[in-house]
UniProtKB/TrEMBL annotation:
E.C. designation(s): 4.2.1.1
Family: Belongs to the beta-class carbonic anhydrase family.
Gene3D superfamilies attached to this UniProt entry: Carbonic anhydrase
Name of the protein in its database record: Carbonic anhydrase
GO molecular function, one term: carbonate dehydratase activity
Transmembrane segments: none
Annotated SUPFAM superfamilies: beta-carbonic anhydrase, cab
Role summary: Reversible hydration of carbon dioxide.
Organism listed in the record: Sphingobium cyanobacteriorum
Amino acid sequence: MNELIGRVLNFETTVFPNESALYNQLASHGQSPKALMISCADSRIVPEHIMQAAPGDLFVCRNAGNIVPPHATQNGGVTSTVEYAVMVLGVRDIIVCGHSDCGAMKALSTNADLTAMPNVAAWLRHSHAAQKVCRESYPDDLSDSDKLRNMALENVVAQLAHLRTHPSVASGIARGEIALHGWYVDIHAGQVLGLDGETGRFSPLREGQPMPVALPHGRRLAADAVYAQAAE
């Protein structure tokens, strides 16, 4: 803890003075982040570090398992964060970011006994769809590491589906104002994979190549037609 406190002092004496113009601008004019990232609370995954983001670039929501509960009437931290990011900050890109060696996904892939942690068990029910996909659609003889990787990838897919149940997100998608991204960070390889919505597969993000996007910007109305104006 003393080491962390020392870094706070370094921020006050070195980092902040060197970036005071940026912080003053943010304090005076407010924030306008480029994206919302929903990622795991795992200490090894730091969204700002992965994206090399400056202050004000990224709106971040972190929780165990990078989970997005389906929209419901009861209030929740993730739901409120999503709603605020879309309706107040005008975020146009939302990223759900999973990662390798995720403890939450390991609990699901190994059917761990979570009796002593009822809140964790209740939270992870939002990943049961991914768990069922892995249990019934993948071979049984996979290694533990492969099972864990599959769980983390399928969980990103499941949480993106939940995200679309949120009214603010659904409306933004319909108007073509919001794109969804599914990412997976491989800690061991130092590599980020992105979900391609057309193929349903994850592939590495590569400079000079089209970025895989789960759901790109585009107007999506079920009855997308031009209606004649009623005569006055």
